[in-house]
């Protein structure tokens, strides 16, 4: 319902065939995102750093394909988008890398490859394994979290700033992004990322929450 209503509200579209939804997280509640993309008929690219979560969703049939190669992900995205095929593709890697690759595609080809975007990393718990920084692999991140939590926290905040910077560039060109109620925008703001709504008070963000704006 969230994906369908986002399409209706942001894209003025009842049919999401050929539209692309990019997000992250395939554990817990976020695991439903891949299934939702296919039900809605769009192309869903979902990033996940934890291979175990990715494989589990694939084995359950909630995720159609898995890849750890961004070139392959972009090629499949382009193909499914062109043919208007419903697809759920799990990218085994950090979502920041995925967002930054989409920015690079925009910069080099002039093509905006994503229509809808969100995030379901566990940003309500960003410094204890809910969000892994792009600068490190998943295993390196786990080791640093154990050995030097202060440095891990600093890297998470740097990563959040990069994360938002990429989203902002794509949103400026017409992608519609929303907060999925996971404290992503709040933690990004605390990290110093550019998420404030211009001309508004400090508690308002430039992107809406799905609760009030989409589901409501």
Helix amount, in percent? 40-55%
CATH class: Alpha Beta
- Average the pLDDT over all residues and give the rounded result: 94
Question: What's the CATH H-level homologous superfamily?
Answer: Urocanase like domains
Query: Can you tell me the CATH topology?
Result: Rossmann fold
Note the gap between the termini.
11 Å
The number of strands is 6
**Which secondary-structure class do the elements indicate?**
alpha/beta
Major sheet: 6 strands, parallel
Number of domains: 1
Q: What's the arrangement of strands in the largest beta sheet?
A: 3-4-2-1-5-6
- Assembly classification: single chain
Unreliable residue stretches: none
Query: Helix tally?
Result: 10
Rg, Cα atoms, Å: 16 Å
Strand and helix order:
HEHEHEHEHEHHHEHH
Organism: Loxia leucoptera (White-winged crossbill)
Pfam families: Urocanase
Domain Urocanase Rossmann-like: 2-214
GO molecular function: urocanate hydratase activity
Can you describe this structure?
With 216 residues, the chain is α/β, with parallel strands linked by helices. The protein has a single domain, classed as Urocanase like domains (Rossmann fold). 51% of the residues lie in helices and 11% in strands. The chain is built from 10 helices and 6 strands; from the N terminus they run αβαβαβαβαβαααβαα. It has helices spanning 2-10, 32-40, 51-60, 70-83, 95-109, 126-130, 138-147, 149-172, 184-191, 210-215; strands spanning 20-24, 43-48, 65-67, 87-92, 116-117, 176-177. It has a 6-stranded parallel sheet with strand order 3-4-2-1-5-6, with helices on both faces. Helix 5 runs parallel beside helix 8, helix 7 crosses helix 8 and helix 8 crosses helix 9. It starts with a helix and ends with a helix. The model has no long low-confidence stretch (mean pLDDT 94).
């Amino acid at each position: 319902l969230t994906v369908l209503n986002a399409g209706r509200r942001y894209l003025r579209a009842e049919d999401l065939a050929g539209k692309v939804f990019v997000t992250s997280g395939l554990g817990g509640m976020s695991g439903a995102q891949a299934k939702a993309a296919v039900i809605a008929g769009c192309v869903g690219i979902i990033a996940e750093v934890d291979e175990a979560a990715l494989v589990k969703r694939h084995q359950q049939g909630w995720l159609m394909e898995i890849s750890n190669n961004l070139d392959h992900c972009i090629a499949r995205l382009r193909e499914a988008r062109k043919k208007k095929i419903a697809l759920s593709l799990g990218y085994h890697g950090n979502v920041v890398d995925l967002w930054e690759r989409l920015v690079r595609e925009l910069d080099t080809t002039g093509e905006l490859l994503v229509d809808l975007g969100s995030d379901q990393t566990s940003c309500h718990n960003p410094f204890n394994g809910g969000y892994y920084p792009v600068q490190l692999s998943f295993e390196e991140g786990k080791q640093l979290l154990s050995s030097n939590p202060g440095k891990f926290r600093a890297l998470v905040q740097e990563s959040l700033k990069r994360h938002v910077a990429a989203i902002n560039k794509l949103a400026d060109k017409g992608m519609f992004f929303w907060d999925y109620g996971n404290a992503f925008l709040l933690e990004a703001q605390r990290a110093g990322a550019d998420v404030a709504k211009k001309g508004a008070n400090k508690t308002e963000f430039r992107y809406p929450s799905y609760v009030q704006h989409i589901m409501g």
